[in-house]
Amino acid sequence: MAIGVPKNQEEFIRMCGEAGVHFPFAPTNEALTRPIMVGGKKVPNRLAYQPMEGCDGTPDGKPGELTIRRYDRLSEGGAGILWAEATAVLPEGRANPRQLWIRPDNCDSLSRLVERIKENCLRHNGYEPLVIAQLTHSGRYSKPTGTPAPRIAYHNRVLEAANPLDDTCIVSDDELDRVQEALVAGAVRAKACGFDGADIKCCHRYLLSELLSAYERPGKYGGSLENRTRLFRTAVAASIKLCGSDFLITSRMNLYDGYPY
């Protein structure tokens, strides 16, 4: 049965009834304007900007002119949570040469960006948003100089079917130890920069996400569930301990990869 495009609320409700579809529907968006408590922090509404890279930072990982302009526009929009874009914790884990990078030399520029976001939203909307830093290591998709330089947890038969990777691309346990330390240090720096929380990124088959499926990897970071989740759990627990209860530690995680492992 062909179904047209409804022109208004009444037509939408009528068409759902004719199609026998139960679709919960509110006539206004008032529910989205209500404040909500998240991890002990009050969020002014139910809207959130999701993290999306602009690939427009400086070569050394500071926010660039276009980065600042983009966050000016986002903060004017008034969402209660502004989930900032993926920010690398190690140079070899950058997804591109213009990806943001949280490190001691860049903290002042990130602090100014967070302050600008909050002041801009307050000026335009009457409240400050929660601003979350997303901390990442791009792993298989690392391109710190613009050329692929993958750091992988294991060889993937599906992803490498056309372009097999050399064994030198597999990260060692020692390298993963350093990644864990860098993620925790990144969370501590994010708090010092004025962010309200940090996302230990574990999705889209970047390094932490790929480790969750490292069934065939030997050593302390592969095989058992305990080993496959070790880096993620350790980074989250240490970040919570060092950052304290007034700072949110969260994560974006995959639910389903779509193929074995």
Topology diagram in text:
Elements: H1 9-18, E1 36-38, E2 41-43, E3 48-49, H2 65-77, E4 81-88, E5 100-101, H3 107-125, E6 130-136, H4 173-192, E7 197-200, H5 207-211, H6 225-228, H7 230-243, E8 248-250
Parallel strand pairs: 3-4, 4-5, 4-6, 6-7, 7-8
Antiparallel strand pairs: 1-2
Helix pairs in contact: 2-3, 4-7
What would you note in describing this structure?
The protein has 261 residues and is of the alpha/beta class. 33% of the residues lie in helices and 12% in strands. It has helices at 9-18, 65-77, 107-125, 173-192, 207-211, 225-228, 230-243; strands at residues 36-38, 41-43, 48-49, 81-88, 100-101, 130-136, 197-200, 248-250. Strand 3 (48-49), helix 2 and strand 4 form a beta-alpha-beta unit. Helix 2 packs parallel to helix 3 and helix 4 runs parallel beside helix 7 (230-243). It is globular. The two termini are 39 Å apart.
Dominant shape: globular
> How far apart lie the N and C ends?
39 Å
Note the main sheet: 6 strands, parallel
Instruction: Return the string of H and E elements.
Output: HEEEHEEHEHEHHHE
**Tally of helical segments:** 7
Radius of gyration: 21 Å
Q: Quick one: how many beta strands?
A: 8
Q: Regions with pLDDT < 50 over 5+ consecutive residues?
A: none
Based on the model shown, name its key terms.
6-stranded parallel β-sheet; 261 residues; two-stranded antiparallel sheet; 8 strands; 33% helix; alpha/beta
Quick summary:
By secondary structure, the chain is of the alpha/beta class. The chain is 33% helix and 12% strand.
